[in-house]
UniProtKB/TrEMBL annotation:
This is RDS/peripherin-like protein xRDS35. One of its GO terms (cellular component) is membrane. The keyword Iron does not apply. Its main location: membrane. It holds the Pfam family Tetraspanin. The keyword Transmembrane applies. It is found in: Membrane. InterPro entries: Tetraspanin/Peripherin, Tetraspanin_EC2_sf. It comes from Manduca sexta (Tobacco hawkmoth). It is a multi-pass membrane protein. The chain crosses the membrane at residues 20-43, 55-75, 100-119, 257-281. It comes from the Eukaryota. Keywords: Membrane, Transmembrane, Transmembrane helix.
Length: 370
């Protein structure tokens, strides 16, 4: 028994195919927008992370590009299949090819959610590794030029300071006694047994240009402004960036991840509509062929099987040319498969079908758009 049965004429099937083409184009546009938005929102951050976690950066971009390319293949194959269903509804492999295409498209759309889940878990692991990596970078700020360049570039371009907060520079030992005056009483008071000190000093890259005042980032060298530290001036905190670098990196990546989820949900919604309309187009074209008139009306259904009706075993007088012969052969083939037409006419039927296929190959072309 069939559910949701609709009747479509040839013009109705053409309009249905037009709606399907529009939905396929919308799917492709959404996929391209997903790639462009994710790339633009995370490019600056990814260029910085590439120096630390190159494999993870390539993995995130690779998953997104693979999903978009699969949608492109689904789009091009869908346009060709729609053209064949309209021009050659009597094609013997139309049913199997359409089912395979619908199944593959559904898997591609559902795979977008798997890509989102993979990117989310990868991003979560990346944030944990990034926190420990940046702490190592702070500890080696004055000993490794590569870390100094990376930390300064990150803090200036992302307007951040420290790992989680600016005070990380005061809690992680990064200044050795070799860089300070050992005869200073203040230095000796701050020094530890391991030869490192924890002064309230931050690098100049932590300074923000939004405050029109001196940057109070190093009380050891800016001793002439010692009153500002002793009085607890609000300029001490306002003159440096207040956001940690992990949060500055997480924010654009989270936006890109949210956009990835929304775009993939939209693609999945389009795919559900495409499944319904493709099923109606396929079953309507098949029913028209079985009734003996490829250009006539056909019943389309979404779920179930259409009940059998009386088949026309000869071409209608209005039919002519190759399409009439095709419909006649297809109807006769359905009649013969049912057992009523088996026998002596089977060989003649096969010869007619072979001749017809040869003629159609020379007359019909299947462009991507029609």
């Amino acid at each position: 028994m069939a559910w949701a049965v609709f009747t479509f004429s040839k013009e109705g099937r053409a309009r249905l195919a037009g709606v399907l083409r529009a939905l396929l184009i919308a799917q492709l546009i959404v996929s391209l927008c997903m790639v462009i938005f994710c790339y633009n929102s995370s490019l600056r951050v990814m260029l910085l992370l590439k120096q630390i976690h190159k494999v993870t950066v390539y993995l995130l971009y690779g998953l997104i590009l693979l999903q978009a390319y699969c949608m492109k293949l689904h789009y091009t194959s869908g346009l060709r299949l729609l053209t064949i269903l309209l021009r050659c509804p009597y094609w013997s492999r139309a049913t199997s090819s359409t089912k395979v295409w619908m199944l593959s498209g559904t898997l591609v759309a559902a795979n977008g959610l798997l890509v989102y889940a993979a990117c989310r878990s990868t991003l979560k692991a990346l944030m944990k590794e990034l926190s420990s990596s940046l702490r190592i970078g702070i500890s080696q700020y004055l000993t490794e030029p590569s870390w100094k360049q990376l930390m300064d570039t990150m803090q200036v371009e992302l307007s951040c300071c420290g790992v989680e907060k600016p005070s990380d520079w005061h809690e992680i030992p990064w200044i050795n006694m070799d860089f300070l005056n050992k005869n200073s009483k203040l230095v000796m008071k701050l020094a530890g047994a391991d030869g490192k000190i924890l002064p309230p000093v931050s690098p100049y890259s932590c300074c923000t240009p939004r405050v029109l005042a001196p940057c109070y980032h190093d009380p050891l060298q800016q001793w002439s402004w010692r009153d500002a530290w002793s009085e607890g001036s609000p300029l001490l905190a306002a003159s440096v960036h207040t956001r940690g670098c992990v949060e500055a990196i997480r924010a654009p990546l989270t936006r890109a991840l949210l956009a990835l989820q929304c775009f993939n949900l939209l693609v999945l919604f389009f795919q559900i509509v495409i499944l319904v309309l493709t099923q109606l187009l396929r079953t309507s074209a098949r029913d028209a062929v079985l009734q003996g008139d490829c250009n006539g009306e056909g019943r389309g259904n979404i779920i179930g099987t259409l009940p059998p009706i009386e088949r026309i075993l000869r071409p209608r007088p209005s039919s002519s040319g190759a399409e009439a012969a095709v419909c006649s052969v297809t109807s006769a083939c359905a009649y013969a498969c049912s057992g009523a037409g088996a026998g002596a006419g089977a060989g003649s039927l096969q010869r007619r079908r072979r001749r017809l296929r040869t003629n159609l190959r020379t007359r019909t072309s299947y462009p991507y758009l029609s």
